[in-house]
Amino acid sequence: MDTSENINSGPDTVSEGSRSCQRLRNQSGFWLLGLCNNFAYVVMLSAAHDILKQQESQNTTLPTPAPGLHQSNSGNSSNSSRYDCNPVSTAAVLLADVIPTLLIKITAPFFIHKVPYGCRVLTCVTTATASFLVVSFSSAVWMSILGVMFASVSSGLGELSFLSLTVYFSSDVLSGWGSGTGGAGVAGALMYSALTQAGLSPRVTLLVMLLVPVVMAISYFILLVFPPSFLQWKTRETQPSLSSMAEQSRERRPLLQEDDSIHKEQNKEAQQTGPLTFSDKLHILKGLRRFILPLALVYFAEYFINQGLLELLYFRNARLSHAEQYRWYQTLYQIGVFISRTSLYCIKIKKIWWLSVLQCVNAVLLFFSVYYQFLPSVWLVFVIVLYEGLLGGAAYVNIFYMIHAETGEDEREFAMAAASVGDSFGIALSGLAAFPVHSHFCSL
Q: Which spans does this entry mark as compositional bias, Low complexity (predicted)?
């Protein structure tokens, strides 16, 4: 009897161990994909400016510096202002880094399903590699900007593709993705600073970072364990892997329950016979507004702070220089983002609008602190910036977790990709708003 029990329990034990190993591989794979996807985006905001400094004769054609490399009291500074300003806001490079991403996220969800996931990932790897190569070997301003744009294309295409990809795995891979994207900010800033501080030139440092696209390819093609029905190199006009849950998904379609019942019936019939139509996707977008709007608002507020206000928050009596204060602002922000994007493992937040409201309160507080200069210490700003990162990261992961949990199986892949436009839209608006604000304060 004991032998029989041992024999019977063997396969179950092996199966359970195999499932645990598969879950660990998938979570690790999405963590690395999140890290690699955002890595080039983060590094380019700093590295592009370092490369451009070698082009002194052409430097006036690109208004910089980039975030994290604020040059106080330099030849470019406007010392007549009480804010120790650069001629143009750091939002300039930010816009070059976010506009291609925004264009991709606005258009791609309507046709990207026709491109196999394997081809998408190879495109991300290629454009990320090109970004490092073009910026490192740039000999003109336009080449550096082109490199930044390559990084933006890779990040934008990767984000909407990998978010869509999560629907083929268990929901806990979202925690790995969110934590990895948060870690990219910390890892990118620390790795770039450490290598350049160790004596490597910016060009050599960027060439070393060519390992990052390689890790992305390994994480996707080798580390992830795909379900048997997943088509890597072919398009899928129907979703056979989801058909077993079709009836359940038709019973709970919260994103499609806003409007008339006629449209809902048409949607049900369409899902029984084929993929989502263009009309279906527009209807889903209407339901996604309650997620996209708070995501856009929270990112508008935080990037308005980061690119429009933080460079003006300089405490002259502190032991840290202006450049050091700015670098610590950015570092603490990224640490806050990393912590909160990792928090999905242990806590879920449903009141996402409160996160947006609290972030706007931060923006208003820091705006008036720049104007009236009433904050007593740089250490208080450090705390606010860390808190700002916590709010932004929490909004991101919880919004996509709610979309994943509340959408039906047949609409989830499109919804995850389409909602990703919210953060880029907010960032782009904040970059545009930062220009007049920067000009106003620096004219005082």
A: 72-81
* Count of alpha carbons within 13 angstroms of residue 300, beta-carbon side: 18
Q: What CATH code is carried by the domain that includes residue 31?
A: 1.20.1250.20
Q: What is the pTM of this model?
A: 0.77
- How many Å apart are CA 418 and CA 104, to the nearest integer? 10
Residue 5 lies in a domain: no
Does some domain include residue 4?
no
Output the CA–CA distances (angstroms, integers) from residue 400 to 156, 202, 251, 352, 355, in the order listed. 16, 35, 21, 11, 14
> What is the tens place of the pLDDT at every residue in 55-92?
544 444 444 444 433 344 444 444 455 666 655 455 56
- How far is CA 356 from its chain centroid? 17
Confidence of residue 336 (pLDDT cuts 50, 70, 90): very high
Greatest C-alpha distance within the chain: 90
Tell me which residue of 138, 128, 151 sits closest to 219, measured CA to CA. Answer: 128
DSSP state of 256: G
pLDDT at position 93: 64
Angle (nearest 5°) at CA 306 between 160 and 54: 90
User: What pLDDT score does 373 carry?
Assistant: 86
